Amino acid sequence: MKQVDVLTLSGSFGILAAHVPTLQVLKPGVVTVFAQDGTATRYFSNVDKALSQLAAAPDETANVEAQINVEASEALVKALE
């Protein structure tokens, strides 16, 4: 890994190996990971939230809504690949 670009509540920035530690709150959106050879892989950071909503769904309606969120998040990730 050469660099990771993230979106946070205070703005977007790149994180390098051996970078000065910082604590930030991630915003939902694209996280881009750059390999040593320069290739970029993009991830959508809201997938974890969608999965946690699915696990905590109190009824069938909430479960279906959460499943739709999971599928939409996964589709976003695939679209970015």
Automatic annotation (TrEMBL):
Any one Pfam family here would be ATP-synt_DE_N
Identify the GO cellular component terms for this protein: mitochondrial inner membrane; proton-transporting ATP synthase complex
One MF annotation (Gene Ontology) recorded for this entry = proton-transporting ATP synthase activity, rotational mechanism
Annotated ATP synthase F1 complex delta/epsilon subunit N-terminal domain residues: 2-43
Keyword Transport recorded: yes
Question: Where in this chain does the record put each F1F0-ATP synthase delta subunit C-terminal domain?
Answer: 45-79
Please state where this protein is localized. Answer: Mitochondrion inner membrane
Where do the coiled-coil regions begin and end? none
Q: Is DNA repair there in the keyword field?
A: no
Q: Which UniProt keywords apply?
A: ATP synthesis, CF(1), Hydrogen ion transport, Ion transport, Membrane, Mitochondrion, Mitochondrion inner membrane, Transit peptide, Transport
Its biological purpose is as follows: Subunit delta, of the mitochondrial membrane ATP synthase complex (F(1)F(0) ATP synthase or Complex V) that produces ATP from ADP in the presence of a proton gradient across the membrane which is generated by electron transport complexes of the respiratory chain. ATP synthase complex consist of a soluble F(1) head domain - the catalytic core - and a membrane F(1) domain - the membrane proton channel. These two domains are linked by a central stalk rotating inside the F(1) region and a stationary peripheral stalk.
Q: To which protein family does this belong?
A: Belongs to the ATPase epsilon chain family.
Task: Describe the protein's quaternary organization and the partners it interacts with.
Answer: Component of the ATP synthase complex composed at least of ATP5F1A/subunit alpha, ATP5F1B/subunit beta, ATP5MC1/subunit c (homooctomer), MT-ATP6/subunit a, MT-ATP8/subunit 8, ATP5ME/subunit e, ATP5MF/subunit f, ATP5MG/subunit g, ATP5MK/subunit k, ATP5MJ/subunit j, ATP5F1C/subunit gamma, ATP5F1D/subunit delta, ATP5F1E/subunit epsilon, ATP5PF/subunit F6, ATP5PB/subunit b, ATP5PD/subunit d, ATP5PO/subunit OSCP.
- Protein name per the record: ATP synthase F(1) complex subunit delta, mitochondrial
Name the source organism: Chelydra serpentina (Snapping turtle)
